[in-house]
Amino acid sequence: MDFDLESLVNVEQSFYDEGYKDGFAHGRIHGLIEGRALGREKGFEMWEELGFYEGFALMWKSILEAQGRREDRAANNIRHLLDLIFQFPRMNPSASEPSELDIPKLFRQIRSRYKVLCATLGAKPTLRAGGSSSPTGDVDDLGGTQESHSADGKNQVWQIDKPARGEGLSF
Amino acid sequence: MNVDLPGKFELVAELEGHDDRAWHIAWNPTRNLLASCSADKTVRLYNFSSSTNQSDGTTNGLTFTHNTTIPTGHTKTVRAVAWSPSGKTLATASFDANIGIWAQEEDNEEAEDSPSGEWECMSLLEGHETECKSIAYSSTGTLLASCSRDKTVWIWEVHPDSDFECMGVLMEHTQDVKCVAWHPTEEILASASYDDTIKLYLDDPSDDWFCATTLTGHGSTVWTLAWEPLQGGYLASGSDDGTIRIWRRLPVKGELRFDCVAVLEGHDRSVYSISWSPSPPSVVVEGEQQCELGLLASTGGDGIVLIWQITETTEADSGKTVIEHKIVARIDAAHGVFDVNSIAWCPRTGLQDVLATTGDDGHVKVWKIHV
Question: Where is the segment annotated Disordered (chain A) (predicted)?
Answer without folding.
Answer: 127-171
